[in-house]
Amino acid sequence: MGAKTVRRAETGRSPSGGARPSRPAWTTAARVTAAVFGAYGFAWGLAAFGAELGVLIGLAPAEAVTAASLLSLLILPMMALWAFAVPRAAVGWAVLGGGGIVMMTASRLIGIILP
Amino acid sequence: MSTKKRALISPALRAAMLWPHTWAGVTLGGLLMLIFFMGSLAVFADEIDRWMMPDTRVGAVGAHRPDAPFSLDRNVLPVVERLAAGRGLRDWYAKLPDGRRPVMELRVRTDGGVSGGMATADGRLLPPVGTLGATSFFYPLHYSLHLRAGFVGYWIVSFATVAMLAGLISGIIIHARIFKDFFTFRSWGQLRRSLLDLHNLTGVLVLPFHLMISFTGIVIILPMVLPAGVNALYDGDVQRFYDDALGNYSRPRSGTPAPLAPLDPMLAEAKRLWGGGEAAVVFVINAGDAASIVRLNRDTGDRLSLDVEPIFFDGVTGAVLKHQRPGPVVATHRLLSGLHIAAFDHWPLRWLYFLFGLSGCVLIGTGLLYWLEKRRVVETAVVGLGWRSVGALACGSITGLLIATLAMMAANRLLPATVPSRELVEAGLFFLVWIGSVIHAALRTRRDPPWAAQCWAVAALAGACVGLNWLTTGEHPLRAIALGDWPVLGVDAVLALTAWTAWRVARRLSHRLSGRRDAPAVTMTEATDHV
């Protein structure tokens, strides 16, 4: 017992020991930016798309905006964490950034098609 | 069941969560500490206001419902006229007295500028309070950092709060596996262990509150920080969205003068429409104009929701222009907002909010300290610049923040009323003292941040605040009890408790520094010193 045991327990619990030391710094940068900007972009897309979709299914505009925004806020921190959990940073960026762009485009299209 | 859970949260996922958890905490911990601490103070903003504004400690006993019924026409309008001082009145509002604020708070916009003031419930204008108090300083610091331009402060606070949510969720994932280890390897002889214990304890026990308060905090300002939906459906016009969602009403000035109809019948009609609620705020927009509007907000003290049910009256005819109830989703938004603001009249819940808010500070603070202690052990006795920077920032955001807050409250009791722009001097002192404490921490952090010195400062300042309140207002605790002035007594009691606690901590830390081995604190730190 004593310091050694505790230390072993600690290292056992924190195998990463920092930012995945074996990987280059740009991977970490890619994950951090995906978590901050990618996740926000995804939430933005979902909030815009959800609002348009809500109106499409008959919600009042204020209701649709609020519902979509609340849902987006709920997933935002999870998406940000997912950017760190996904095995490849590029996949994280593709899903978050790409998904955000797709949903933003979809919301624009609905907005243009429906007055 | 446990195998199922193990499959859900793989070791790789837990390992991946540790990095964002650690670095979000280290980089944003100081800011989150400020947000949680000021938010906790904001729970008792009205009470701290009474302490900082002695002139408003009027009629603490049953002041909120005087014998004569409260009249907008007789009690409020004359004060508005006095504040306008003959200049053309454009708009004004008055927050009406309630159980926690025995005075009304008015703001008047005239052709010649804006003026404001406080008045007693019977319409006596009080001298300028000369302070922003908790309502206009500590509370806005909590949600906007006083960076109003372009909502920059809202953005920074929201960003940190999303990081807090991510930190809580990643903390759950990390903790899920170590739950067992944690209890197996408990070692109370180690400071590092104790810090982790306390970090996990507050993290687990108060987790529902922390999740709720972080989420609902962003919910309140959601249309400002995530305006995607507003952009899509309202062309980015947030005001138009709010008008639509909350049932607001507005119209431009007509230019034709017209007198204001009596306000008291409108108040009676509003109470009828609310089904018996009390009015909290009265607004008059386009005063003295044919297009004037009177808006009455309902007091939300009797409900969770922040739905103020605004009712809009035609200022000339007194007819109801608009009274629109929100839809179910917007009502949910108001409920979530109400959960955060905690405007409901419930003293045990207020104390819980205050204590849980402070437990958020404990959670963040122990996280920072744990990082520092662990790095100190892993690396050698010589600590690097990075460690010292985090140490100084932790010190500045834990004890430094307390010192700045207490220094402002002491200055509030010391500065004479004649000081020009007194409220800005007070606020400036807060920031100067805070910066000073960070510089002090940066200069003095060698093997440890200067915790002891700053704890002595906290103890001295908190004690001084109690003494200064006594000296400058004559209201010592016994007199406060005799008067039934619970707000002032409560603030004094918390200050005294802060002084006592900080004194105890400072004494223990000083003993440890002077190398005495009999104090209990030593056994906690020895381990970190000899590894």
UniProtKB/TrEMBL annotation, chain A:
For this protein, the parts annotated as crossing the membrane are: 32-57, 64-85, 91-114
Location of region: Disordered:
1-24
* Key words, A-Z: Membrane, Transmembrane, Transmembrane helix
Record-given protein name = Iron uptake protein
Q: Which organism is it from?
A: Azospirillum griseum
The upper taxonomy is: Bacteria, Pseudomonadati, Pseudomonadota, Alphaproteobacteria, Rhodospirillales
From TrEMBL, chain B:
Source species of the chain: Azospirillum griseum
Q: Which residues cross the membrane?
A: 21-45, 152-179, 200-226, 351-372, 392-412, 424-443, 455-474, 486-506
Keywords, in A-Z order:
Membrane, Transmembrane, Transmembrane helix
Q: Which domain of life is it from?
A: Bacteria
What name is this protein filed under?
PepSY domain-containing protein
Question: What is the organism lineage in this UniProt record?
Answer: Bacteria, Pseudomonadati, Pseudomonadota, Alphaproteobacteria, Rhodospirillales
Question: Do you know which Pfam families this protein is assigned to?
Answer: PepSY_TM
